[in-house]
Every structure is written in structure tokens, then in C-alpha cells.
């Protein structure tokens, strides 16, 4: 074998064998199908087929004990709540439809309870198309890379074939010339033999001739072998060249089809006239005057025809702001305080409401829309509710985005409503008579938005006026008798830092009908940054000053603030990955009853060990409010979680030391078992500790039963 390593003939035969075995067909056929990817009709069908199967998640949860998310002011007994939730994608007519539902035997005080929502979102279809398009482009790139490798191999084999062809042709020419020389020499010897008379000399000539004949036979044999090799090489070369041309054609097709895909706009296939449709729970934008949308059980739809825009909605408005056991959230959201002084309504009534809106232009660009809202008699929820007469409202929505300045937008919204009246007054005044009267029930919002590309910044300036007699039932969560000027900015500083600033000034008593006028001045700032690659920092701060001016009396100014610092940093110590998190919060808030300060310091260290994940927490909470139990609490906790192939378990302990209530110990145990990829069951048992800043609850309920149990069944439909 070693002798054949350098044998030119053996190397030549090895090359012929490898060239004959080289094939591109499997590369082109098995790796990818070009036509199935780039044909527009097939592409659309392949995307739409993604929604042919029902998919999503459903869950069933059973809870018992001290449940901090629920309130029962009439009893301190443990609560029992059975809840089911679902989020499903439905295969109906290949449309991007989602079904969400929630049902609970005991209603949560925050949010909308016991609802069903059927949602149509064309953006989902666009996302599916974009995903499929990116997948196809990636596959084309992979195939192109594979063919590049094949091309390199082919170029090498074609080069070797050309070298061998030159060698064989040169050897053929040399052998042919040698054959002619030998033929001439043999012919000359034959003449000499015939003319030679001496037997001894004649015999010598015959021997020379025989020697030349042997050489001639070897040359003829070599000549025939060269001709045979050239024929084989020519066939191999033609095969390799045809494959090379096929490869070039395939790469050219890939480039053309890739350009077609990249130029393909997913909106071409998902640009239906129906832009939005919700049945059941929906959040229609009744008015552009408020960014806070009011939930409603009913229907909402938006559709376009060319540049014409249409929107219709109707149903029963909901009250999703009730009471909360969460002290801080309760003060920030659900009870009127300085921060939400003019963005708060004590919603006690449900109203039947309908809205139509139409106009010309793009919703996010230049447009002119007009809308009409109608509110029917309120549906009473209690004997103390006031029965109000129906109301109506008109609204003009204008927005201008200059084509030569696409980063600039001007917006103007003007509305006129009927005057809120009770049922007794409705005999003298009705919705339409006051809607078109001169009574001060106007509302307006003027906005200017400017994007500054050089600074990577966006600035938005707005001014809003709502007359004292405007019917705000259809505005969302805003108050009448309010004038606001606001400035918002958002700037990205480099690749790892962003800062946002918000400043506003509010005033009520617009007609000076009251002896008291309230001014609110607010300034807030948020900062997010990535430091040293591994440290993420988020800073939030807001200060608000309320100035109360009373006629013939001294004015009063009070200030509130909210601030927080959040820090997270992954690091590695002793070859063990850790994640450190730190949160500091400090609030001073004044509501209708009192002023209170709240301070929180929380730290958490998560360590990924070989056996599982360990989480250690150390927290400090301090509250000072006459309406709430004062004091401070220090809490130490540690949890350990181990995950197996099907079973995951967690065990934890917690200790709380309260300044007045002493020390309480608690802990939890949790099991999660996966019966399959689709079905999982979990169970949690917990003994709570008293004084947790974000889980504050009634001391009577805690003393009676400080335990909570929860079992949950999750099913994933794929």
C-alpha cells in the first residue's frame, strides 16, 4: 500500500473514482424546496395553515385561607376561591382570533372579573408572516452557504481534471511522436536487412528491429491508455462542468428568490379592512381626551376602506376600581390622592354606552375624524346610587403629520357633551338640548409631538381643557373642571441608557365658581442604564406640590413624592452563577384622609447550585400613617428549589420582626408535577408572616388563620 501512495496512476484512478461519486442532487433536493418558499400563494397558505390547530393555555386554581388579593370586610374567616382562566387561539376561518376568559367564585377587588373576550388582531397575522418570512430567508442563506462549500469542492475537482487532461494530452502527443520515430527506424532497419548480404550483420539488424518492435508495442499500449484516460477525463470534466453550471444556476435562483422574499411586504397579505374586533370584554377608546380606557362588556370594531376609517363600539361600562388590601397601590390607584387628583373617578355606576367614529386619513398619521357617543340611563348597583339621565357627546379628532417633516405631529381634539342631569331634571333638559346649547360643557386637547433623530429623543407637549359642566362618563378616568399643561420627553443616551422626563401643571375651578382653587405641579423622571455590562440600574422619581388657594384666606402648599431605585446584577463566584437584586422605595402620599410615609428596602440573592436554585431575601419595611398600623418590619427568608425531569419542589422559611407585634415565623412548601408536556399540577402551602410591605392585611384575619393553600392545574394545548 505504501508503494501506491506516490504512484501517479493510483492517484489518477482515485481522482476518477471521487469525481464519479461526487453528486449535487441530494444537496439540492433534500435540504430545501425553493418553490415552496417563494411562491406568494404557497407562502400565504403556509402561514395561514399555522392557525389550523387550537392552541393556548387553560388553568384551574383552587385557593383557601388568608388570601391577600381578596377582601371580605364582613368576616375574618378564611376565604375559599375557585378560579379558571384561559388564553386560546381559535382555528376559525384561518383568522388570527384569540379567546380569553376568567371566572372566579369570589371576585378580586382589582381588575375586571368573570369575563369572556374574543379578540381579532391582524397584527398577530403579520407577526406570523414575518416569522415565516425570516425562517425562509434563513433557510435560503443556509442552502446558499452549503452550495458555496460544494462550489469550492467542484472548483478543486475541475482544476484537477484540467491538470490531468493536459498531462494526458501531452503524454499522448509524446507517445504519438515516439511511435512515428520508431516506425521510421523500423522501416529503415527493414530496408537494411533486405540489402544486407552478411549473415552476421543481418542478424544484428534483426535484433535491433525486434528491440524497436518491443518499444513500439509499449508505446502503442501507452498511446491507447492515454486515449482511454482522456475519454474518461473528458466525461468526468463534462459531468463536473454541468454540475458546476447547475450549482451556479441554483445560487442565482436563490439570490433572486431571496430578493423576492426580502422585498415581500407582509402587509400585502394581511391588510384586511377589518383592523380590530373585540367581543365580550373590550377597552374601546371612547375619546382621545384620556389615555385611560374604560373597560366595557360589549363589542368594539375598527375597519378601513382605503383611507376611510370607521369604528363602532357598544356595551355596559364596568367599574374595575374598587378597594384593595395593598396599601401603596390603594393610595396610588384606588383612592383619590395628590398624584391622581384630576385623573380619578369614584366609579359607582354602570352605563349603557355606544359610540361611532368615522373619518378620512391614517390613524397614526394625518387624519380628520368625527365621533358621537351616547350614554343611556345608568344601571343601578346600589340604593345609594344616583339615577342619571342619558348623555351624549360629539368629538372632532384632527391630526396633521407633514410629509416633508414626518417626525412632527400636530393634534387637536375638540368635544362637546350634554350637561349631566338627574332623572328629575331630565324633564326640563335632555341630552340633545344641552349638547347643542351654550352651556360650558366643552373639552379640548392640543398636542405637539416631535422626534429628534440626532438626539434619539421624542418630545410631546399637550394642553387639555375640560369645562366644569362636561359629562365625563364617556371620557375614561378623568375629571371635569380641569386644565392641564404637560410635557413629556424620552431620550436614548447611547446604547445602554435612556431617560424620560414628565412635567405637568393642573388647575381646577376654571370658572371661579368656588372659593377654593387647587393647583398641582408635578415633575417626574425615569432613568434606565446598563453599567459595566452586568449591572442594570433603574431610577424613578416624582415630586408633586399641591397649592390650595382660598379666597380671603392664606394659601396652603403641601408636597408629596415617590422614589425608587432598582438594581440587578448577575455575577459568578466560586464557579457558581448568582443574581443579586436590590430595590429601594420611598413614598410620601396624601389622600383624602391622611398623609403617610412608606419606606422599603429589599435585597434578594439567587444562586444556581448543582442541586438546585437557592434564593435568600432580606427586607426592611417602614410605615407611618395614622390610618394604618404604624411600625417597621424586618423580614428574612430563604427558599430552595430543585427541578427534576417531571417533579419540581420548593421549600422555604421566613421570619418577620415587627416593631410592635413581635416576631412571626412562616414558610412555604410547593410541588409541581408534569404529567406530560401539556399537563402540569402544582400545590402550595404557606404560613404567612405579618407586616410585609406589599402584602399588608387585616390583623384579625391574620390572627385567626395565617395560612394559605393553593392547588393549580395547567393544561397547554399545542
What's the gist of this structure?
27% of the residues lie in helices and 42% in strands. With 718 residues, the protein is α+β, with helices and mostly antiparallel strands.
Describe this structure in words.
With 718 residues, the protein is an alpha+beta fold. Helix content is 27%, strand content 42%. The protein is built from ten helices and 26 strands. It has a 26-stranded antiparallel β-barrel.
What is the fold's blueprint, element by element?
Blueprint: H1 2-5, H2 8-21, H3 25-30, H4 34-38, H5 40-48, E1 55-65, E2 79-90, E3 97-104, E4 115-120, H6 122-195, H7 199-263, E5 274-282, E6 296-305, E7 308-317, H8 327-334, E8 350-361, E9 367-379, E10 391-400, E11 408-417, H9 431-435, E12 442-452, E13 457-466, E14 482-492, E15 497-507, E16 516-531, E17 535-550, E18 556-573, E19 576-590, E20 595-608, E21 613-624, E22 631-643, E23 647-658, E24 662-674, E25 679-687, H10 699-704, E26 707-717
Antiparallel strand pairs: 1-2, 1-26, 2-3, 3-4, 4-5, 5-6, 6-7, 7-8, 8-9, 9-10, 10-11, 11-12, 12-13, 13-14, 14-15, 15-16, 16-17, 17-18, 18-19, 19-20, 20-21, 21-22, 22-23, 23-24, 24-25, 25-26
Helix pairs in contact: 5-6, 6-7
Based on CA atoms alone, the radius of gyration comes out at 42 Å
Shape estimate: elongated
SSE-based structural type = alpha+beta
Number of helices: 10
E-strand count:
26
Amino acid at each position: 500500500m505504501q508503494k501506491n501512495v506516490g504512484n501517479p496512476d493510483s492517484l489518477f484512478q482515485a481522482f476518477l473514482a471521487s469525481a464519479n461519486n461526487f453528486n449535487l442532487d441530494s444537496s439540492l433536493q433534500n435540504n430545501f424546496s425553493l418553490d415552496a418558499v417563494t411562491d406568494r400563494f404557497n407562502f400565504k397558505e403556509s402561514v395561514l395553515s399555522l392557525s389550523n390547530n387550537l392552541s393556548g393555555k387553560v388553568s384551574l386554581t383552587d385557593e383557601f385561607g388568608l388570601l391577600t388579593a381578596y377582601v371580605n370586610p364582613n368576616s375574618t374567616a378564611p376565604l375559599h376561591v375557585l378560579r379558571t382562566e384561559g388564553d386560546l387561539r381559535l382555528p376559525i376561518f384561518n383568522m388570527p382570533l384569540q379567546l380569553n376568559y376568567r371566572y372566579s367564585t369570589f371576585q378580586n377587588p382589582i381588575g375586571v372579573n368573570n369575563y369572556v373576550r374574543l379578540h381579532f388582531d391582524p397584527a398577530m397575522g403579520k407577526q406570523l408572516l414575518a416569522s415565516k418570512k425570516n425562517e425562509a430567508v434563513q433557510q435560503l442563506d443556509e442552502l446558499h452557504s452549503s452550495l458555496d462549500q460544494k462550489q469550492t469542492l467542484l472548483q478543486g475537482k475541475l482544476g484537477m481534471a484540467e491538470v490531468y487532461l493536459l498531462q494526458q494530452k501531452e503524454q499522448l502527443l509524446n507517445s504519438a511522436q515516439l511511435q512515428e520515430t520508431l516506425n521510421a527506424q523500423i522501416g529503415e532497419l527493414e530496408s537494411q536487412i533486405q540489402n544486407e548480404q552478411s549473415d552476421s550483420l543481418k542478424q544484428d539488424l534483426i535484433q535491433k528491429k525486434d528491440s524497436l518492435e518491443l518499444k513500439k508495442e509499449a508505446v502503442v499500449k501507452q498511446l491507447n491508455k492515454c486515449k482511454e484516460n482522456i475519454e474518461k477525463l473528458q466525461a468526468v470534466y463534462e459531468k463536473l462542468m454541468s454540475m458546476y453550471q447547475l450549482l451556479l444556476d441554483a445560487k442565482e435562483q436563490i439570490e433572486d428568490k431571496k430578493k423576492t422574499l426580502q422585498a415581500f411586504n407582509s402587509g400585502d397579505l394581511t391588510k384586511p379592512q377589518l383592523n380590530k374586533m373585540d367581543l365580550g370584554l373590550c377597552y374601546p377608546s371612547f375619546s382621545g381626551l384620556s389615555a385611560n380606557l374604560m373597560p366595557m362588556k360589549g363589542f368594539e370594531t375598527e375597519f378601513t376602506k382605503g383611507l376611510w376609517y370607521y369604528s363602532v363600539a357598544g356595551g355596559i361600562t364596568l367599574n374595575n376600581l374598587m378597594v384593595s388590601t395593598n396599601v401603596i397601590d390603594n393610595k396610588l390607584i384606588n383612592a383619590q390622592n395628590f398624584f391622581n387628583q384630576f385623573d380619578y373617578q369614584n366609579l359607582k355606576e354602570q352605563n349603557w354606552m355606544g359610540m361611532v367614529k368615522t373619518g378620512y386619513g391614517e390613524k397614526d398619521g394625518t387624519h380628520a375624524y368625527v365621533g358621537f357617543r351616547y350614554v343611556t340611563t345608568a344601571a343601578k348597583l346600589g340604593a345609594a346610587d344616583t339615577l342619571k339621565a342619558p348623555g351624549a357627546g360629539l368629538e372632532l379628532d384632527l391630526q396633521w403629520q407633514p410629509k416633508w417633516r414626518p417626525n412632527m405631529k400636530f393634534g387637536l381634539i375638540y368635544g362637546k357633551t350634554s350637561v349631566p342631569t338627574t332623572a328629575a331634571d331630565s324633564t326640563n333638559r335632555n341630552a340633545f338640548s344641552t349638547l347643542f346649547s351654550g352651556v360650558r360643557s366643552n373639552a379640548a386637547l392640543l398636542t405637539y409631538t416631535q422626534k429628534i433623530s440626532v438626539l434619539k429623543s421624542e418630545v410631546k407637549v399637550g394642553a387639555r381643557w375640560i369645562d366644569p359642566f362636561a359629562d365625563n362618563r364617556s371620557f375614561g378616568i378623568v375629571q371635569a373642571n380641569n386644565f392641564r399643561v404637560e410635557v413629556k420627553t424620552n431620550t436614548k443616551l447611547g446604547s445602554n441608557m435612556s431617560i424620560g422626563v414628565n412635567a405637568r401643571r393642573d388647575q381646577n375651578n376654571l370658572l371661579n365658581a368656588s372659593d377654593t382653587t387647587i393647583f398641582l405641579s408635578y415633575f417626574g423622571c425615569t432613568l434606565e442604564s446598563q453599567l459595566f455590562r452586568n449591572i442594570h440600574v433603574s431610577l424613578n422619581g416624582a415630586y408633586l406640590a399641591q397649592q390650595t388657594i382660598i379666597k380671603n384666606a392664606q394659601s396652603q402648599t403641601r408636597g408629596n413624592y415617590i422614589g425608587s431605585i432598582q438594581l440587578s446584577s448577575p455575577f459568578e463566584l466560586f464557579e457558581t452563577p448568582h443574581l443579586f437584586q436590590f430595590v429601594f422605595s420611598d413614598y410620601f402620599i396624601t389622600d383624602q384622609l391622611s398623609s403617610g410615609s412608606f419606606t422599603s428596602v429589599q435585597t434578594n440573592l439567587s444562586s444556581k447550585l448543582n442541586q438546585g436554585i437557592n434564593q435568600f431575601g432580606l427586607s426592611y419595611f417602614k410605615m407611618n400613617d395614622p390610618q394604618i398600623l404604624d411600625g417597621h418590619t424586618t423580614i428574612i427568608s430563604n427558599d430552595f428549589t430543585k427541578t427534576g425531569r417531571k417533579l419540581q419542589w420548593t421549600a422555604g422559611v421566613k421570619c418577620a420582626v415587627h416593631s410592635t407585634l413581635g416576631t412571626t415565623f412562616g414558610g412555604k412548601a410547593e410541588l409541581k408535577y408534569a404529567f406530560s408536556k401539556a399537563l402540569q399540577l402544582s400545590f402550595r402551602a404557606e404560613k404567612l408572616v405579618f407586616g410585609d410591605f406589599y402584602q399588608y392585611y387585616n390583623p384579625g384575619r391574620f390572627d385567626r388563620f395565617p395560612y394559605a393553600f393553593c392547588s393549580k392545574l395547567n393544561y397547554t394545548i399545542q
